[in-house]
Amino acid sequence: MGKIVIEEMEFYAFHGHYQEEQIVGNRFLVDLEMEVDLAVPANSDNLSDAVNYQQAYQIIKNEMRRTKSNLLENIGKRILDALYAEMDGIEKTTIRIRKLNPPMGGPIKSVGIEMSRNQKAG
Q: Going from the N-terminus, what domains does the chain have, and what CATH number goes with each?
């Protein structure tokens, strides 16, 4: 067992509770950890035996760019749903989503959520 980690994928998207956020947009950072069996691809050195992290990136990119969400929690759920629907071999996934410079009335670097799901939970 091991982990595939993709850190600080950056997207400009139009998610947020306030109408201004959905018009002007904001920058988001997304981190992904996938617990997978690395033994077979480690021995074979063949991409077809591995969980393809480029595919995971494309799934996240598509979810960040499609339907506007009011809440980071909704984006996280949609990403987890899509990863498990489109990819095999993932045992556990953790996603972290941060909105940079959120409109909260003062200087704040980011606000974010972290969600995890086990493969068995579906």
A: 2-121 (3.30.1130.10)
